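Title: Request for sanity check on UPF0434 protein DC53_01355 prediction

Description:
We are preparing a figure and want to confirm that the structure record we downloaded matches what your pipeline produces today. Could someone re-run it with the sequence below and paste the raw C-alpha cells into this thread? We only need the C-alpha cell string, no images.
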Amino acid sequence: MAFDTKLLEIIACPVGKGKLRFDRENNELISTAAKLAYPVKDDIPVLLENEARELSLEEVEKWNS
C-alpha cells in the first residue's frame, strides 16, 4: 500500500491552512506557505508541527517553480 494522493484534496497544512503537495522522493507532505515538510510514516501523514522539518529557501523555491 502507498500513500493515497487523493487525501491531498481534503487535508491542509495545520499551520498555514494551505494546500499540501506530496514529495514522493522523500515521502513527505510539503507546505511551501508554512515552509514545512511533514513526514509520511507507514502511509499515514504525520501532520504535527513538532514532527515537521523546516524547508530551506532552496526547497521552497523548487516547489514554487
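Thanks, this matches our download. Strands lie at 21-23, 28-31, 36-41, 44-45, 53-54.
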